[in-house]
Amino acid sequence: MTKSRFEALQSDVTECRLCPRLVRWRERVALEKRAAYREETYWGRPVPAFGDPDASVLVVGLAPAAHGANRTGRMFTGDRSGDWLFRALHRAGFANRPDAVSAGDGLVLDDVLITATVRCAPPANKPTTTERDTCRRWLEAELDLLDHIRVIVVLGSIAYAQTLRVLAARGVTVPRPRPRFGHGVEIPLGNVAAVSRAAGVGGLTLLCSYHPSQQNTFTGTLTEEMFDAVWTRARALAD
Fold first, then answer.
1. Contact 155, 61 (CB under 8 A)
2. Which of 31, 100, 113, 208 is deepest in the core (most CB within 10 A)?
């Protein structure tokens, strides 16, 4: 894939205004701000994918956080979930540093691309079904460009369900009955040539992880050991 095609797609993502409720919310948050960030200029737009366009590992999250990616303009950057994610990616050798503070902090991902099912911050972190389905066009367009994906890591049950919908619509063979979501669940997928030339040769695997939200990390539902195991497995499958 040429980098210019990927960049052009992400530019289109940032201009999207198809969901009125999300547009109103993301822009309201960007104006009202959180007190701790009152001197900052919020991004307040749809958030593009971040990472390596030639990656073997695709990470699919839910949506930008109101005062995280909606503020910084970069996936999982500037919030507690991102702190967990980038520490884990760094330990697994996918990131050059263990933290993500701002879009200009020098963070570089190697062989990983991070995207989301919904690109605008939703109220209460809960997009509607219509918003989710409207936004799936961007994930579909990314899959059209990603030639080397062999592993898809989904963060949370909503990302899991939506990713399987998108893959099934593209002709990927999804097991029936659909496996129940759970941390560490691993699903080999069949008939994957429409997703990635690399996957068509070596197979495509879906890996499930609990989302590194504060609700999960503060309660011990997700531990760093559990999270590291997912990225260690993703690395082994990608290699």
1. yes
2. 100
Q: Residue 198: what pLDDT?
A: 56
User: What six digits make up the tokens of 21?
Assistant: 């409720």
- Indicate the burial class of 141 (C-beta count within 10 angstroms; 0-12, 13-18, 19 or more): middle
Taking a C-beta distance cutoff of 8 angstroms, is the pair 26, 122 a contact? no
Q: Please tell me the predicted confidence (pLDDT) of residue 173.
A: 86
The string of DSSP letters for 140-189 reads HHHHHH-----EEEEESHHHHHHHHHHHHHTT-B--SSPPPP-TT-EEEE
Average pLDDT, the chain: 94
**Domain 3-238 - what CATH class?**
alpha beta
Numbers of helices and strands, H then E, in the chain: 9, 6
Give me the residue spans of the domains in the chain.
3-238
Q: What is the pTM of this model?
A: 0.94
